[in-house]
């Protein structure tokens, strides 16, 4: 008796930078998945992509491709403009969750995810499930994420764009404060912090703290430190406390560390079919 062949999950990829290219290739190499479409803001970037029939010329045409899951790896602006529309037709994974520092947008997306799932990949965020469990129980008191990178790995906006020019030979703290205020200033760099703020939902974007440090001597790594405080007295230094340090191999100038690519793909594998609402994966 022959077994029924399991239906492949159809995935649409929005964005064809380094991560997008990796995902497109990996999806095509995986028997469980099928590429529904690929779209990029700059059409020329797709000139070398051989399967032209999979290229989506305009995002307005995405419903025709019948994707089960749409994955954004382009820019937070995509979620602002297209997130609620994507959720009308498919599950949606936000590769740039810094977009959700906009409270109005977060509320809009949660409301739009009444039929399909809204997914947040863990990326370089370590310990997310444990932190979410503490937030669920109300025992999470504080959370801080510190990211240290070579100055050329930061893509910054506003005042931080000027501040990074002050970096000389020693590490410089570019920002230290609430994650909500940092996300618009470093939308491509602090998606890990946005994921942390969503996992730590009893604290959120306003109470989770973020710090970014530019270190000109850090040429081979991105370092992400996550500090968590739980039950007990934080003031008296008797609270439950965990600190993790993640060293992600990264070339000078790379926005995303190499280990994050595989982590992101693992999130895709766990992203489809969990039902409506927001899910961390």
TrEMBL record:
Q: Which residues form the Aspartate dehydrogenase domain?
A: 169-260
UniProt record, GO biological process: NAD+ biosynthetic process
InterPro entries hit by this protein? Asp/hSer_DH_NAD-bd, Asp_DH, L-Asp_DH, NAD(P)-bd_dom_sf
A Pfam family (short name) is: Asp_DH_C
Q: Which domain of life is it from?
A: Eukaryota
Domain Aspartate/homoserine dehydrogenase NAD-binding: from-to ranges: 15-119
Q: Select a single GO molecular function from the record's annotations and give it.
A: aspartate dehydrogenase [NAD(P)+] activity
Name the protein family.
Belongs to the L-aspartate dehydrogenase family.
Protein's name in the database: Aspartate dehydrogenase domain-containing protein
Question: To which species is this protein native?
Answer: Mytilus edulis
